[in-house]
Structure formats: structure tokens, C-alpha cells
Design a protein that fits this description.
mainly alpha; about 80% helix; globular
Length: about 100
């Protein structure tokens, strides 16, 4: 795969897999389009007396664990590898936006 093909694949994966997943799951986690997108992270953090970043870390680690399992075994039980990769990418964007929110 050359650079041009790779960039096209990444762009298509982001636009057609990552973004739709982020948008649909974001509304589920927030509760509505107008609610705080980090609501679930913040509520869980309060409940367990940890930070929203630690909650994020648990969720992100789950995605990485599934990806690692796929790399080692070639199998996943529940979601496709594309879905797990998209989730991991999206969790990095979530982290970035959490950090951005805390700057303000």
C-alpha cells in the first residue's frame, strides 16, 4: 500500500466508521445531543472517587486489550476488529476533548 492509498484508507475509515460510531455512542453516553458528552465519565468518577481520566483509562484499556487479543489470536468474540480500532481512536479524541475542556 502506498502513501496515497494509506491516506485514502485512513480518511474513509475515519469518516465512515469512526465518526458515525462516535456520534451514535456519544449521544447514548451523554443522554441527549445537548447534554454533557463526558457525563458518564464524570458520574462514574464521582461514584468510585476517581478522576474522569482514570475512568477514561479503564475504557481505553478495554479497547486495547481486545485489539491485543485479536493480534495474538486472530479472533474477537463480540465486536469486529474495525469496531475496536474505531473505538480506540475515538477514545483518544475523547481524551483530547476532556483535556481541552479542563483548560477553560
Amino acid at each position: 500500500m502506498n502513501v496515497k492509498q494509506s491516506n485514502r484508507e485512513i480518511r474513509e475509515f475515519f469518516n465512515f466508521v469512526c465518526m458515525p460510531l462516535l456520534e451514535s455512542k456519544g449521544e447514548d453516553y451523554a443522554g441527549s445531543k445537548d447534554a454533557d458528552v463526558f457525563n458518564t465519565f464524570k458520574e462514574t468518577a464521582r461514584e468510585f472517587n476517581i478522576t474522569k481520566y482514570q475512568v477514561w483509562g479503564v475504557h481505553f484499556r478495554k479497547q486495547l486489550g481486545a485489539i491485543y487479543k485479536y493480534i495474538c489470536t486472530g479472533k474477537l468474540e463480540s465486536e469486529s476488529i474495525d469496531s475496536r480500532i474505531a473505538d480506540a481512536i475515538n477514545y483518544l479524541f475523547i481524551l483530547r476533548n476532556m483535556l481541552e475542556e479542563d483548560k477553560k
